[in-house]
Design brief:
The structure holds 2 protein chains of 2 kinds. By secondary structure, chain A is mostly helical. Helix content of chain A is about 55%, strand content about 10%. In chain A, helix 6 crosses helix 10. By secondary structure, chain B is an alpha+beta fold. Chain B is elongated and about 80 Å long. The chains are: A mainly alpha, B alpha+beta.
């Protein structure tokens, strides 16, 4: 309840502005998935095609890095257009980290909508994460997914990735007026939100793992002003990834730069910074261990 | 004790499924959906490569102005999400829009005349012209390579294998439908290993 009213100091900066911008972008990204097939089917405009597996805007083609990687690994062929299509997302991830996950991904949009709806229904602001696993599971998910693909000889994530499935189901609904069975996966993943916030994104999303890996030395990080921090741990409760921004985990591999902690902090102790020189990653982890 | 019995049950179930059902499951998971009158879009790489190369982005489906390409679902195992054209329903008009948007090279640029989605085969037992019942030359009339891919010999249609693109216009237009939904002229997919 007390989180509802923003502290007076944070209202200067516009209070929950980051969250509003981010949710706006998530909504726009989701609307794109609905509008594209509608325009393509009824308007025959095929200027924009596809969804976040591969999005074509005119001649510009974007390819999701994991899907492109899987395709090349399994077919054992390097196809240059795939590499070019993967370039933009990879550069984005290497500079900004996992921002696709928190600012664009349709699963994030659905999960956040469910969370908002739930908060509105039960009139409570915060929920406990009922099931907290090791964050390292994310890497095993990526390795396991790639291994399974190579063993089966067919890419798995390309047809079972929940973000991709959202786009595919919406397109199929418009084009064939039916849905595919695998869409149940999306429902399952979104319902897991009720168990733990962003449960799938935190522990099992291979694409998120790849983007996190690419963004290991990202430039945009959540930095902390230690002199402003009162140790209230409000950011830690707010973090959808279950991290501790107050202990410097805003610089860790697992942070996806959603900015929830920045919005939440009543003392403006957290902020986005653009690192010009790369910090030694080991040192921050060591200091985190000390804090514990 | 409860947990142990549960685990035991789980183990027994897994091993029994693995030993008995694995072969069927594997066959079902890996079986290609390409069959008579159900073909890959033009320029597709060979069927052995297709499931691995295609990233299921669906852009071929969205860009097709005739809405002839469909996406497969999870019931087709590893081929889920790949594009397929049921030419008897809506044939391919070889506009090559899907090829131009494919980001992975699963559909590769190919000239219209050089496309080999499959090859038309006349069923001489059901075809009215071959049976001598009617003067039907629908397949010949609709063929985009009329006179090259389908020729008339004594008013009977004959497919020239070397020139047939497998676009399916003939199968779509054929007025005769057998009880098993095949037409009197059908498109057979390229044989495995054969360059498409």
């Amino acid at each position: 309840m007390k989180d509802v009213a923003p502290a007076p100091s944070s209202s200067k900066r516009g209070g929950r502005s980051l969250r509003a911008i981010r949710f706006g972008l998530l909504t726009a990204a989701f609307l794109l998935l609905i509008l594209t097939p509608l325009l393509n089917y009824y308007g025959n405009l095929t200027f924009i095609q596809g969804w976040y597996q591969s999005l074509g805007i005119g001649e510009l083609r974007l390819i999701s890095p994991l899907e492109g990687l899987e395709s090349m690994l399994v077919s054992r062929q390097i196809w240059v257009p795939v590499l070019i299509g993967m370039l933009a997302p990879l550069v984005l991830a290497s500079l900004l980290g996992r921002v696709f996950c928190s600012w664009v991904c349709p699963i994030s949009f659905l999960a956040e909508s469910v969370a908002t709806l739930r908060a509105w229904i039960v009139r409570r602001k915060r929920f406990h994460d009922r099931l907290v696993l090791s964050k390292r599971l994310l890497w095993y998910a990526l390795i396991g997914e790639l291994l399974l693909s190579l063993i089966l000889g067919a890419p798995i994530f390309v047809f079972l990735s929940p973000p991709g499935l959202v786009g595919r189901e919406l397109m199929l609904a418009v084009y064939t007026h039916r849905l595919a069975w695998e869409g149940i996966l999306v429902v399952g993943v979104v319902l897991l939100e009720l168990l733990t916030r962003r449960f799938y994104c935190r522990y099992f999303c291979p694409l998120g793992a790849l983007l996190a890996l690419v963004g290991a030395k990202r430039r945009l990080v959540v930095a902390q002003r230690p002199d402003h921090c009162t140790g209230c741990a409000g950011c830690a409760r707010a973090c959808p990834q279950g991290l501790r921004p107050d202990l410097g985990e805003g610089r860790s591999l697992y942070c996806w730069n959603c900015g929830t902690c920045i919005d939440t902090c009543p003392h403006q102790a957290l902020h986005f910074t653009w690192q010009t020189s790369l910090p030694p990653l080991r040192k921050t982890t060591a200091s985190m261990d000390q804090c514990r | 004790m409860k947990r142990r019995s549960f685990l035991k049950l789980l183990g027994v179930l897994t091993t029994s499924t693995l030993t008995t059902g694995l072969h069927d499951v594997q066959a079902g998971l890996l079986r290609s959906p390409v069959r008579t009158n159900h073909l890959r879009p033009p320029g597709a790489v060979s069927e052995e490569l297709f499931a691995g190369k295609c990233i299921r982005c669906g852009r071929c489906v969205e860009s097709c102005p005739y809405h002839c390409i469909d996406l497969l679902d999870i019931r087709h195992g590893i081929h889920a999400g790949t594009p397929l054209i049921a030419v008897a329903d809506i044939p391919c008009y070889l506009c090559m829009r899907c090829v131009s948007v494919c980001p992975t090279g699963s559909l590769q640029p190919v000239a219209q005349a050089a496309t080999r989605m499959g090859c038309a085969v006349v069923n001489k037992f059901t075809c009215g012209a071959w049976a001598g019942l009617v003067l039907c030359r629908t397949c010949y009339d609709v063929c985009p390579f009329k006179g090259k891919a389908i020729v008339l010999e004594k008013l009977m249609p004959i497919v020239i294998r070397e020139a047939c693109t497998g676009c399916g216009l003939c199968a779509h237009a054929c007025p005769i439908t057998a009880p098993d939904q095949t037409k009197a002229i059908n498109i057979e997919p390229p044989a495995a290993g054969e360059a498409p």
